[in-house]
Amino acid sequence: MSKLKTLISEGAGKINPISVSDYIGVGGYEGLKKAVTMTPEQVIGEVKKAKLLGRGGAAYPSGSKWEHLLHIPETPKYIVCNADEGEPGTFKDKVILGQLPLKLIEGITIAGFVFGAKAGYIYVRGEYRKIQKQLIQAIENAKKANYLGDNILGKGFNFDIHIISGAGAYVCGENSALLNSTEGKVGRPRIKPPHLAEVGLFLQPTLVNNVESLASVPAIVLLGGEQFLKIGHPDSGGTKLICLSTHSAKPGVYEIPLGQVTLRDAIFDPELGGGLKNGKQLKFFHLGGQSGPIGSPAQLDTPYSYTDLRKAGLSVGSGAIVVLDETVSIIEYLKGVTEFFIHESCGKCVPCREGNKQLYAILEKLSVPGAATAADLANLRRLVTTMTAASFCGLGQSAAVALNTAWKHFKDEFEANVNKTPAAAAA
């Protein structure tokens, strides 16, 4: 039995991505047609039954988020799609944006209908220049076909979508920083509460969802929430787009049913990752992007679901699975991760801004035989605790996740170059 599904990716790479007629040919816009015959409460009810967890990384229940916004009386309300895909090792949203933009547009339009919104925004990663132009053309084609714009499908529903280009700042993937950037402000996170559902874009109630989350909505509406749930895991319905990269024999994006594929399947099954390049042995894997946990071969039989991975000390995150072979030094790898966070920190808070620099300094010492001491290891552990507890936003709070989980699996590599002489220990 195939371990692949095409619930979201049906038609990807096989149709003209901006052609409305091609999209309709693979079942497109059937979800919207059904949604406009339902009440907002009914649509949200299906999203809740589906147990759709946010696909951007936070895994917040989408149905609860939608229900919260529906009960907020203030208007206007805005729909914002987070397409600022800046997590290294993550390129699954790019498949939807580049090959199935109308599926995303359909999902956003359904959300617009549910909340009576007049405008939606897609905040696209600055590096996706070609995709931005394609999205604009897809939006225009949807308007011409009456699936967007004025009086959509003759239902008296008016809704438009605008494209916003990011400037290449990773921190703008954090929802409140993204909204600040959309408004033309510095892309730094906001203090919460108030929550974005209450005070979001232009200080109005706002729904912010990831590309994959919104692209799942048409299938949920069309199939019904219960059927969508059955496809995946009892705690999280549907499928997940995963990204295999680095030393994977078959790097790429694959759509798998949640809970029905293990990490071993994802990395080694011939239909999926196909093992490692050049017959090398797996040393470790990095899940969910640079801010996600590092896992060891002993965890390979964990089912790929939000619940099972969490129980194993791992996480789905963005869907990235970075595969590393036995030639990779864990210390050198973590130096690269930490360099990324140093570069991308917005500088707002001290724990993140300075903490990452200090982490790197200690990792640099640990990479040189005899340069680090036991005190450096103790400081490393304290820094991890401080950054996780005291950073202002998720970037700083999760910057040391990779290091912390690598410590559990590869403590001997951290200690290998430590100077163990009594004089060094005393110092």
The share of residues in helices is 40-55%
CATH fold name of the largest domain, please?
A: Rossmann fold
Q: CATH architecture of the largest domain, please? A: 3-Layer(aba) Sandwich
pLDDT averaged residue by residue:
95
CATH superfamily of the largest domain: NADH-ubiquinone oxidoreductase 51kDa subunit
Tally of structural domains: 3
> Care to count the β-strands?
9
Report the CATH C-level class of the largest domain.
Answer: Alpha Beta
Q: From N to C, what is the helix and strand string? A: HHHHEHHEHEHEHHEEHEEHEHHHHHHH
Oligomer: single chain
Structural class given helices, strands, pairing? Answer: alpha/beta
Low-confidence stretches: none
Description:
By secondary structure, the chain is an alpha/beta fold. It has helices at 20-25, 30-35, 40-50, 62-70, 92-99, 101-115, 129-144, 175-182, 211-223, 225-231, 263-268, 306-311, 330-344, 350-366, 374-390, 394-398, 401-409, 411-415, 422-426; strands at 78-83, 119-124, 160-165, 206-210, 239-246, 252-257, 282-287, 294-295, 320-325. The strands form 2 sheets. The protein has a 5-stranded mixed sheet. Helix 3 packs parallel to helix 10 (225-231), helix 6 (101-115) packs across helix 9 (211-223) and helix 14 (350-366) packs antiparallel against helix 15. The longest helix has 17 residues, at 350-366. The radius of gyration is 22 Å and the shape is globular.
